[in-house]
What does this fold into?
Amino acid sequence: MTEAKRTTFADRLFNFSPGPAVLPVEVIERIQAELPTLPGVGSSILEISHRSPAFDRILEETVAELRGLLGVGNDHEILFLQGGASLQFSMIPMNLLRGTGRSADFLLTGTWGATAIKEARKEGAVHVAWDGAATRYDRLPAVADVRLSDAPAYVYMTSNETIQGVQWQTDPDFGPAPLVCDASSDFLSRPVAIDRYGLFYACAQKNAGIAGVTVVVIRRDLLERCPDGLPTMLDYRTHATNGSRANTPPVFAIYVLGLVCNWVRERMGGLPGMARHNAAKAKLLYDVLDASDGFYAGHARADCRSTMNVTFRLPGEELEKEFVAGAARRGLVDLKGHRSVGGIRASIYNAMPMAGVEALRDYMIEFQSARQATAAAGRS
It folds into this structure.
């Protein structure tokens, strides 16, 4: 076996990837320290049984951390599933729409909402209560603009669209229908009025850990609506009844999720502190966009901007390629926008340090100044 090259934390770049995304260094250091042997266990987290007392404690502590951070009461179950958000696109209509004779109402605010609609249509009727396609998903609706169907089975929203960079700034209220939210890209980034949601879910690999675990917070009364005859592992009741251990759960991913939750609570001041930190980071970049006289053109309308994914264009694709290449030379990586829309996307999730955002801000200012000086010289 080839000997691995020795690296250190000093070798880390500033990773602006939309996911899997940057992890807190403190969490990585703890994983590194505990990986050979969990304290008091005698085995690695990679080796322990999902039914061992050691994992019992990890599971219980992670659930407790999430309940505390999100304010989850006894009316909701917390489930740890697999398959990411993509599987939830199917599981939600299977469990909450199939056989109801009603529609699933969607607030279509970007790419991921549109993807979820395709799966929901396989299970029942879909009603688009608001669609932002006409303005290329650069905004979110006012509550008054939403046109719900009569007695929908549920109302579905995406709290933050990673590709377009729009984010709900408050938790909406659309009346008695259960509100279902894909919070995959702003999970644990700010306080949430969890009682407004019938089902609130997120894959972990953007703000809360690594790929492999999806957190589903579901109101207990909705479990009673799940129809009989579903495939066993696609029935929420299976996972609720078995404490997320109907089969072998993603042990390592749940362990990392618990460490990240602990980091948010102890080091970042919980979700209120996390929200302040994220808002300050985002402001650094949006201030550059607003002061650039159009050199950097933000995609999202100012009142709908995401604190997680800052999306913008430059005056031409060649200039964007040059921008991305120059950033990489400075250790600022994974800034290329999604292939469906192009441009630039800076994903500044929970664990992105302020120093990384400051470095990107400085580079943006210098890049604009240099390109405009070159253009001016060419005209003289």
